[in-house]
Amino acid sequence: METVLSVVVGLLFASAVYLMLSLHTIRMLLGVVLLGNAVNLLIFTVGRFRSDVPPIIPVDSYVPTTDVANPLPQALILTAIVISFSFFVFLLVLAYRAYQDLGTDDSDKMRLAEPVEDDSPPRGY
Question: Under a CB-based contact definition with an 8 Å cutoff, are residues 19 and 27 in contact?
Fold first, then answer.
């Protein structure tokens, strides 16, 4: 099962990089979402895919007496979900404001500091 999840993580990372290299901002944002999901699945896979028993210590001992599932990757994933969602919402609002101001979501057409008609490099500083 871990092998299958590792392949899925690789595919998600590849898809995220492909989408983030796009010229359109919406595709870039979808790449950021896929990247966040790939990282979450990577943390889940690295934390070992086990479903032994819940990490509950019996009353009469100080340490678990049997093999237990590791709760740390689950806590990290929950934190990462909140952070990636807030990051996505911030980027979505930023992209929407850029679209409102510039009228396009193409990153090549958002070049206000570099006019298209002046393609020559600067001649002096």
Answer: yes
